[in-house]
What we know:
With 163 residues, the protein is of the alpha/beta class. The protein has helices spanning 14-26, 44-48, 66-79, 99-112, 130-134, 141-160, and strands spanning 2-8, 32-38, 52-60, 63-64, 87-94, 115-116, 121-124. It has a single domain, classed as Flavodoxin domain (Rossmann fold), CATH 3.40.50. 44% of the residues lie in helices and 24% in strands. A hairpin with a 2-residue loop joins β3 and β4 (63-64).
Amino acid sequence: xxxxxxxxxxxxxxxxxxxxxxxxxxxxxxxxxxxxxxxxxxxxxxxxxxxxxxxxxxxxxxxxxxxxxxxxxxxxxxxxxxxxxxxxxxxxxxxxxxxxxxxxxxxxxxxxxxxxxxxxxxxxxxxxxxxxxxxxxxxxxxxxxxxxxxxxxxxxxxxxxxx
Length: 163
């Protein structure tokens, strides 16, 4: 039985919706345990106990969220050289871009020597004013489907031994 660990942080609910959509689709696969964890609660033991990872975060000020960064900071050296070759993917909830958050996670995962299994999905909410940026997000159905596709593909690849 393979384990997919989905770690997320969300301030305005967008990234949470994306993570839950991916988890829902991943759970539709056979022979997979899907663990959905908030980044503030995820620990080194959780990383070590998983076969693959999905990191889901908003992009804040052209970077991953502070809580997601804290997750990586707390755990990076505790699992260094113990995750080599495991697959990962990312989902980013952004106002307009999202690419810097992807690059930041990719660089961290390179340090862990993880293997990028799927292309990152960036959902742009087009939030540009302070009010829109801080408002609760409602991710569009077509974007949730994209997140589901990542969750399903990652879970399927793990169970089939592709990743």
